[in-house]
Design goal:
It is a single chain. The chain is α+β, with helices and mostly antiparallel strands. The protein is about 15% helix and about 30% strand. It is built from one helix and six strands; from the N terminus they run αββββββ. The protein has a three-stranded mixed beta sheet with strand order 3-1-6, with no helix packed on it. Strands 2-4-5 form a three-stranded antiparallel beta sheet, with no helix packed on it. It is globular, with a radius of gyration of 30 Å. The chain starts with a helix and ends with a strand.
Protein backbone atom coordinates (compact mmCIF):
# COMPACT_ATOMS: atom_id res chain seq x y z
CA UNK A 1 0.00 0.00 0.00
CA UNK A 2 2.86 2.37 0.74
CA UNK A 3 4.34 2.26 -2.79
CA UNK A 4 0.97 3.24 -4.27
CA UNK A 5 0.62 6.19 -1.87
CA UNK A 6 4.11 7.48 -2.79
CA UNK A 7 3.35 7.11 -6.49
CA UNK A 8 0.13 9.14 -6.18
CA UNK A 9 1.80 12.07 -4.46
CA UNK A 10 3.68 13.33 -7.59
CA UNK A 11 0.54 12.85 -9.69
CA UNK A 12 -1.50 14.89 -7.20
CA UNK A 13 1.14 17.64 -7.19
CA UNK A 14 1.25 17.85 -11.01
CA UNK A 15 -2.57 17.91 -11.12
CA UNK A 16 -2.71 20.86 -8.71
CA UNK A 17 0.00 22.65 -10.65
CA UNK A 18 -1.89 22.21 -13.94
CA UNK A 19 -5.16 23.31 -12.34
CA UNK A 20 -3.46 26.52 -11.16
CA UNK A 21 -2.11 27.22 -14.65
CA UNK A 22 -5.52 26.64 -16.18
CA UNK A 23 -7.11 29.10 -13.75
CA UNK A 24 -4.46 31.71 -14.56
CA UNK A 25 -4.98 31.52 -18.30
CA UNK A 26 -8.76 31.49 -18.05
CA UNK A 27 -8.88 35.14 -16.93
CA UNK A 28 -10.35 34.38 -13.55
CA UNK A 29 -8.88 36.01 -10.48
CA UNK A 30 -5.58 34.58 -9.39
CA UNK A 31 -1.92 35.36 -9.56
CA UNK A 32 -0.66 36.61 -12.90
CA UNK A 33 2.63 35.68 -14.51
CA UNK A 34 4.02 39.20 -14.03
CA UNK A 35 3.57 39.38 -10.27
CA UNK A 36 6.53 39.50 -7.98
CA UNK A 37 7.71 41.24 -4.85
CA UNK A 38 8.35 44.48 -6.75
CA UNK A 39 5.13 44.50 -8.75
CA UNK A 40 2.56 47.11 -7.61
CA UNK A 41 -0.73 45.66 -6.45
CA UNK A 42 -3.97 47.19 -7.66
CA UNK A 43 -7.58 46.21 -7.31
CA UNK A 44 -9.17 46.10 -10.79
CA UNK A 45 -12.56 46.84 -9.21
CA UNK A 46 -11.32 50.21 -7.90
CA UNK A 47 -10.51 53.06 -10.29
CA UNK A 48 -6.96 54.28 -9.89
CA UNK A 49 -6.66 57.68 -8.26
CA UNK A 50 -3.94 60.05 -9.36
CA UNK A 51 -0.97 59.65 -7.06
CA UNK A 52 0.71 62.59 -5.36
CA UNK A 53 4.42 62.82 -4.89
CA UNK A 54 5.69 62.03 -1.38
CA UNK A 55 5.46 64.97 0.95
CA UNK A 56 3.31 67.06 -1.36
CA UNK A 57 0.38 69.02 0.00
CA UNK A 58 -1.46 70.13 -3.13
CA UNK A 59 -3.52 73.24 -2.57
CA UNK A 60 -1.70 74.20 0.65
CA UNK A 61 1.03 76.73 1.34
CA UNK A 62 4.02 77.17 3.63
CA UNK A 63 5.11 80.10 5.78
CA UNK A 64 8.64 80.48 7.15
CA UNK A 65 8.58 82.81 10.15
CA UNK A 66 12.00 84.47 10.63
CA UNK A 67 12.43 86.05 14.08
CA UNK A 68 15.34 88.49 14.55
CA UNK A 69 16.42 91.04 17.11
CA UNK A 70 16.89 94.72 16.07
CA UNK A 71 20.53 93.97 15.13
CA UNK A 72 19.37 91.24 12.72
CA UNK A 73 20.55 88.31 14.86
CA UNK A 74 18.30 85.21 14.90
CA UNK A 75 16.26 84.58 18.04
CA UNK A 76 15.95 80.86 18.85
CA UNK A 77 13.35 79.28 21.15
CA UNK A 78 10.74 82.00 20.61
CA UNK A 79 7.07 80.85 20.64
CA UNK A 80 5.21 81.35 17.35
CA UNK A 81 1.42 81.72 17.27
CA UNK A 82 -0.91 81.93 14.29
CA UNK A 83 -4.44 83.18 13.77
CA UNK A 84 -6.51 83.57 10.66
CA UNK A 85 -7.67 87.01 9.56
CA UNK A 86 -11.39 87.35 8.74
CA UNK A 87 -12.10 83.63 8.28
CA UNK A 88 -12.64 80.67 10.64
CA UNK A 89 -9.57 79.02 12.12
CA UNK A 90 -9.07 75.50 10.70
CA UNK A 91 -9.20 72.85 13.44
CA UNK A 92 -5.67 71.61 12.72
CA UNK A 93 -4.28 75.10 13.45
CA UNK A 94 -6.28 75.57 16.64
CA UNK A 95 -4.33 72.86 18.46
CA UNK A 96 -2.56 74.22 21.50
CA UNK A 97 0.97 72.91 20.96
CA UNK A 98 4.30 74.64 21.42
CA UNK A 99 5.77 75.96 18.19
CA UNK A 100 9.22 77.46 18.71
CA UNK A 101 11.85 78.96 16.45
CA UNK A 102 14.94 76.87 15.79
CA UNK A 103 18.64 77.84 16.16
CA UNK A 104 18.34 79.96 12.97
CA UNK A 105 15.43 81.91 14.50
CA UNK A 106 12.97 80.28 12.07
CA UNK A 107 9.82 78.23 12.31
CA UNK A 108 8.46 76.59 9.14
CA UNK A 109 4.69 76.22 9.16
CA UNK A 110 3.64 73.77 6.44
CA UNK A 111 0.33 72.61 5.05
CA UNK A 112 -1.50 75.92 5.58
CA UNK A 113 -4.79 76.44 3.75
CA UNK A 114 -4.56 79.52 1.50
CA UNK A 115 -5.69 82.74 3.15
CA UNK A 116 -4.57 85.67 5.29
CA UNK A 117 -2.80 84.92 8.58
CA UNK A 118 -1.28 86.89 11.42
CA UNK A 119 1.82 85.38 13.02
CA UNK A 120 2.67 86.58 16.52
CA UNK A 121 5.90 86.08 18.46
CA UNK A 122 6.62 87.08 22.05
CA UNK A 123 9.55 86.89 24.42
CA UNK A 124 8.58 84.47 27.21
CA UNK A 125 8.14 86.22 30.55
CA UNK A 126 8.27 89.71 29.03
CA UNK A 127 5.80 92.06 27.39
CA UNK A 128 7.76 92.14 24.12
CA UNK A 129 5.40 91.14 21.30
CA UNK A 130 5.53 91.52 17.52
CA UNK A 131 3.14 90.41 14.79
CA UNK A 132 3.16 90.25 11.00
CA UNK A 133 0.34 89.57 8.53
CA UNK A 134 0.87 87.53 5.39
CA UNK A 135 -1.28 86.00 2.68
CA UNK A 136 -0.48 82.34 2.18
CA UNK A 137 -0.88 81.17 -1.41
CA UNK A 138 -1.43 77.53 -2.44
CA UNK A 139 1.71 75.64 -3.45
CA UNK A 140 3.98 78.57 -2.52
CA UNK A 141 6.33 79.43 0.36
CA UNK A 142 6.05 82.84 2.03
CA UNK A 143 8.83 84.33 4.17
CA UNK A 144 7.56 86.24 7.20
CA UNK A 145 10.28 88.44 8.73
CA UNK A 146 9.52 89.62 12.27
CA UNK A 147 11.80 91.88 14.33
CA UNK A 148 11.36 91.38 18.05
CA UNK A 149 12.86 93.74 20.59
Amino acid sequence: MKPVRHALLPVLFVGLLLAGCATESSGSPGPSASTGPDTPVSDPRQPEAPSASPGSAAGRGTAIIEVRDPAGEPLPVIPVEVRTVDWPMPAELAEDIARMTDARGEYTWTDLPPGEYEFTVRVPGEDVVAAQRVTVVADETSRVPITLG
